[in-house]
Write a structure and sequence with these properties.
Elements: E1 4-9, H1 13-22, E2 28-33, H2 37-45, E3 51-53, E4 65-68, H3 72-82, E5 91-94, H4 100-105, E6 114-120, E7 141-146, H5 152-165, E8 169-172, H6 175-197, H7 211-217, H8 224-233, H9 235-257, H10 261-278
Parallel strand pairs: 1-2, 1-4, 2-3, 4-5, 5-6, 7-8
Antiparallel strand pairs: 6-7
Helix pairs in contact: 6-9
Length: about 290
């Protein structure tokens, strides 16, 4: 029996790590696709996939599973460009950090091609295939946004794949719930990090910054192209999260400006207690 094929389009940090981690998964051959010759050369030399190519037309029509590991707008363009080239009965999925826009774009696919939105909650502050590693997904949540018509066969495949990757669990949710959560837990954190680095005092503090500063700004040296797309394609949810943050910052500022130590202590007690509750052991699943 011929091997089944998983095609991973985009061999950056996430796509490259997926390719490495999925080597040997069931009876699937792992094929990497990228347009960058340096990326393909690195992937070949380091055995990132079973084999790699710069020609998606040569592999996508035969793929049993296609994983789109591109920037968000690239995923949208790819779905439109190859909508009639995906194999009937196959599964197409993605690893993008926004889901509402991607799920909307996937509506262009013919009914015989299944699409399940996917977001592995893993990553680093680095980018590029040279930073890819197969252990990236161990212990992470795998968020899924299936369509109502997504098949049990393909949902079961995603569960088996998650288990092989070492994911902690698989969490089905809606695109809207996913985007609201990611706006708060990830995208807003990146905006806080870059905003801190916008301060005019930044370079005066070089060499004197403590672990709290380094932790807060760890993700600030981000991939500008990627995060511009992630922010802009999740604009409504992110603006709502930032509005809440602004209100919370303003209340702290007001207590300080008023010299109201009692109000300040009350707010700090409230905030610290909520953080401690977040860190308590217990259910940790996306509802």
């Amino acid at each position: 029996m011929d091997k089944k094929t998983i095609v991973i389009v985009g061999l950056g940090l996430i796509g490259g790590s997926l390719a490495i981690a999925l080597r040997g998964f069931e009876d699937y051959e792992i094929v990497g696709v990228d347009v960058s010759e340096p990326t393909l050369r690195f992937a070949r030399e380091h055995g990132v996939a079973d084999w790699v190519t710069d020609d998606p037309e040569a592999v996508i029509p035969q793929a049993d599973v296609t994983i789109l590991a591109l920037h968000p707008k690239g995923i949208v363009r790819y779905l439109e460009q190859f909508k009639d080239r995906f194999q009937p009965g196959s599964l197409v999925t993605d690893v993008c950090g926004v889901k509402t826009a991607v799920m909307e774009a996937a509506k262009c696919l013919p009914p015989e091609v299944d699409f399940i939105g996917c977001h592995p909650m893993a990553g680093t502050e680095f980018s590029g295939v040279e930073h890819a590693f197969g252990e990236m997904f161990r212990g992470s949540h795998l968020l899924l946004t299936p369509r109502p018509e997504s098949t049990k066969e393909h949902l079961d495949f995603m569960a088996r794949m998650a288990d092989y990757l070492g994911c902690r669990d698989v969490c089905p949710t809606t695109p809207e719930a996913h985007d609201a959560m990611i706006a708060y837990t990830s995208q807003m954190m990146h905006i806080i990090a870059v905003s801190v680095c916008d301060d005019e005092k930044l370079f005066e503090c070089r060499g004197f910054e403590g672990s709290s500063f380094r932790g807060c700004t760890r993700v600030a040296a981000l991939d500008v192209g990627l995060w511009t797309q992630l922010f802009s394609m999740n604009r409504p949810a992110l603006v709502e999260a930032l509005d809440r943050l602004e209100a919370n910052l303003q209340s702290y500022r007001q207590a300080l400006a008023d010299g109201d130590d009692q109000a300040l202590a009350k707010k700090l007690t409230w905030s610290a207690d909520r953080k401690r509750q977040m860190d308590l052991p217990g259910p940790d699943l996306l509802q």
